[in-house]
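Curious: explain these tokens?
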Amino acid sequence: MSQTITTIGFDADDTLWQNEEFFRLTEERFALLLADFAEADHLAERLLQAERRNLGKYGFGIKGFVLSMIETAIEVTDQTVPASVIAEIIGAGQEMLEHPIHLLPHVEETVEALAGSFRLVMITKGDLLDQERKLAQSGLGEMFDAIEIVSDKVPQTYIRAFMRHGDGPERAVMVGNSMKSDVVPAIEAGGWGVHVPAKYEWDIERVEAPVGHPRFRVLPDLGGLIALLDQL
């Protein structure tokens, strides 16, 4: 195992377990509910605009997504959306909050193997109660030395987290599916950024990859993380 790296940060949603897939399915359901008022592509664009506007108010997560769907429904129907549709949207959000956790390939064995050799820190955005629920259901909680549920991920987020729970960002690796939230700011903080692409990518999380940066790596899944750490 690497003697240089002492701390590993892991994103949660779509890095350790599935998440964006449930948002996509709910968005398809939303499109069917509003089919009489807007084409699916137009509705998706309006919803994305609402999500962008509302991030600063509601933060990341299911609750903000539901509120953005309701806001979009009101807008595209010129405030005539039936109460039954609003009820369906709220019900869809509640189902998302109750959905069981599905770990992604090689997550459990990789995290378990690393737990004895590195300090593991989960650094994730989203709603506090929802993320705590997911972690409890995942069975991974006891393997982590620390949990950081943050409102956003910027370089200072990683500097603070890796100073608090490790030996600073220079001796830390951040592993995640989001180039914008997990990889780029971790590298800008002075750490390593390992990108593990997910099946789906939220448009709001799209940025250019730091190709050529000496602290940037890409893995198809977490199964290759141990071998990668041996090379750092």
